[in-house]
Amino acid sequence: MSEVESFFKSAFSVDNVIFGFDEGELKILLIQRGAAPYKGKWALPGDLVYPNEDLDDAAERVLEQLTGLRGVYLEQVKTFGSVNRHPLGRVITIAYFSLVNVSNYTVTPASFAQLAKWHRLSDVKDLAFDHNEILDSCLKRLKRKVRTAPLGFELLPPKFTLSELQQLYDSVLDLPKKLDKRNFRKKILSMGFLVECEEVQEGVPHRPAKLYSFDKEKYEQFLNEGYVFDL
Amino acid sequence: MSEVESFFKSAFSVDNVIFGFDEGELKILLIQRGAAPYKGKWALPGDLVYPNEDLDDAAERVLEQLTGLRGVYLEQVKTFGSVNRHPLGRVITIAYFSLVNVSNYTVTPASFAQLAKWHRLSDVKDLAFDHNEILDSCLKRLKRKVRTAPLGFELLPPKFTLSELQQLYDSVLDLPKKLDKRNFRKKILSMGFLVECEEVQEGVPHRPAKLYSFDKEKYEQFLNEGYVFDL
DNA sequence: TGCTATGGTGTGAAAAATACAATAAGTCCT
DNA sequence: AGGACTTATTGTATTTTTCACACCATAGCA
User: Fold this and answer.
1) Cβ-defined contact of A53 to B83 (cutoff 8 Å)
2) What pLDDT digit, counting tens, does each position of A152-165 carry?
3) Chain-chain contact of B54 with A81 (C-beta, under 8 angstroms)
4) B110-154 pLDDT tens trace
5) Domain for residue B231, yes or no?
6) Of all protein residues, which has its CA closest to the C1' atom of D29?
7) CA of A215: how far to CAs of A104, A188, A191, A196, A221, in Å?
8) How many structural domains are present in chain B?
9) Quick check: A76 contacting B, CB < 8 Å?
10) Does residue A231 fall inside a structural domain?
11) Which bases of chain C are contacted by protein, using any atom under 7 A from a CB?
12) Rounded distance, CA B67 to CA B20, Å?
């Protein structure tokens, strides 16, 4: 084998940390591997990138095969390429995270998985490959990004209450002290891109909360006026 | 060729955006390509990753071959993998940026280059491959990172004046208004990890400035007390 | 010695962040 | 109908941070 050929004895994959928000908590979607290596272990959903496929497309494909969802928020985080990270050869992987709204779809295990299931973050341990490290990086990235970009909304249904939104931030940021309710509402409403729907919660055994939704146009306007999202 | 084999008809490279600060300006080190494709064009220094080489090691190697420097600040930024980004095959590239102190070394063009030269950012245009896009990503990253981590010092000699430091920030951030001198000094000194050397500038035709240096231990202490670097 | 260039310093006003608690609007139960 | 329960909603006073701003000091040099 020539020297040049040896450079091409390698492959790349994408792995996707899929975040969801359910039961008041941040969760991630893991698959149980159906094939060696690490057969039976929990792992991040991922796949090799096809020869004629862009990286972002591959990450979208993995997500769609698993959830049926398209057009959700997806962000490249970091590439992991230790020489021995994959037991079968030189495979580097490009890690992505995505944010999905758990309520409106059902998980259908793709070909590469026996089983797919939502996990609470605190229950996750001992994943296949270097996936724990990948998860850490993505979680760290998420924590930063939710404070500097209006991403939280991607994890909620189109209409949500301010309490749900705050609970989401409390869960994602996992700070020693919860955010102050009054200050949180003041701040997020003052940015002016949450619009009050003409609706309230239904079926709750207490005072129903107003529903709000994220107005993308108003957010663009907010940016154009020179402001920055910052929580 | 089997389907599995086709996944391995690919390679990966690293590309390095090397930032330096000289003549009061932010600069980047580019090479003029000595071989096809894009022979003669200016490009980011980069190379294929060896089969038994970690990604970070490859980025360090590229930097060292070009500058002779080791142990400088290096950070992975993003991976670029469009199907057609490389005319000779499927090659994805992992982009890094590094920060070097221009004053203490000389550039020695490596094997992959005819010529290496520092460029002012405003003079850079029409690089080989997708290197303009890579540069944009790295510059954006640098602008964010210098405000949230004590990276600026990596671009300066060990002893520097506060004016030099501010000039560096003005140059990197490139804001419509320069930073205010008094507020800048107040803020950076209040963090307490810049220590005054027992020296002043020499050979300047005006009042000589005090020299300061970055004290890593004091910075750790600053972090342990729960503070965050933020400019 | 005076001209020129950059170094170095403090204060007041405005804006933003923070801490904090009482009333409102529903359901559920008796 | 009334009371208990649960979560929703709202404002103010204090502290902290940010911002705007101008003058004297100290060196080299002619």
Assistant:
1) yes
2) 999 999 999 999 99
3) yes
4) 656 678 999 999 999 999 999 999 999 999 999 999 999 999 999
5) no
6) B205
7) 20, 13, 11, 10, 10
8) 2
9) yes
10) no
11) 4-11, 17-21, 24-28
12) 12
Residue B19 within any structural domain of the chain: yes
Looking at the fold, whether A209 and A129 belong to one and the same domain comes out as no
Burial A107-126 (b: 16+ CB within 10 A, else e): bebbebbeebebeeeeebee
Do residues B29 and B139 both lie within one domain? Answer: yes
Our measurement of CA A72 to C1' C15, in angstroms, reads 37
- A136 shares its domain with A162: no
A207 touches strand D (CB under 7 A): yes
Nearest by CB to residue B94, choosing from A7, A50, A79, is: A79
Judge: A79–B83 Cβ closer than 8 Å, yes or no: no
Nearest CA in chain B to A52: B83
User: For residues B35 and B157, is the Cβ–Cβ distance under 8 A?
Assistant: no
Question: Is B229 among the domain residues?
Answer: no
The reply to whether B178 Cβ lies less than 7 angstroms from strand C is: no
User: Which of A7, A49, A52 lies nearest to residue B51, judging by beta carbons?
Assistant: A7
Task: For B214-225, write each residue's pLDDT tens digit.
Answer: 999 999 999 999
Tens of pLDDT along A163-208? 999 999 999 999 999 999 999 999 999 999 999 999 999 999 999 9
| A101, A197: one domain | no
Residues B56 and B87 grouped into a single domain = yes
Range of the domain at A51: 3-147
Asked if A50 and A99 count as a contact pair (C-beta separation under 8 A), the reply is: no
Strand D within 7 A of A120 CB: no
Q: How far is it, in rounded angstroms, from Cα B156 to Cα B58?
A: 25
- Please check whether strand C approaches the CB of B185 to within 7 Å: yes
The answer to whether A49 faces chain B, any CB pair under 8 Å, is yes
Residues A92 and A189 in one domain: no
> Which residues are CB-contacts of B31 (< 8 A; sequence separation ≥ 6)?
B42, B43, B44, B45, B66, B109, B110, B112, B113, B114, B115, B116, B117
Residue nearest to nucleotide C27 (CA to C1'): A205
Domain check: are B94 and B17 in the same one? yes
A89 and A35 assigned to the same domain: yes
CATH number of the CATH domain containing B90: 3.90.79.10
Please check whether residue A54 is in contact with residue A94, taking contact to mean a CB–CB distance below 8 angstroms: no
Q: Considering just the CA atoms, what is the radius of gyration of chain A in Å?
A: 20
Q: How many CB atoms lie within 10 A of CB B201?
A: 16
Give the phi and the psi of residue B7 in degrees, each rounded to 5: -70, -20
Give dist(CA A139, CA A17) in Å, integer.
9
Q: Does B82 touch chain A (CB under 8 A)?
A: yes
Query: How high is the mean pLDDT of chain A?
Result: 93
Residue with tokens 């146009």: A217
Buried b (16+ CB within 10 A) or exposed e, A144-157: ebbeebbbbbbbbe
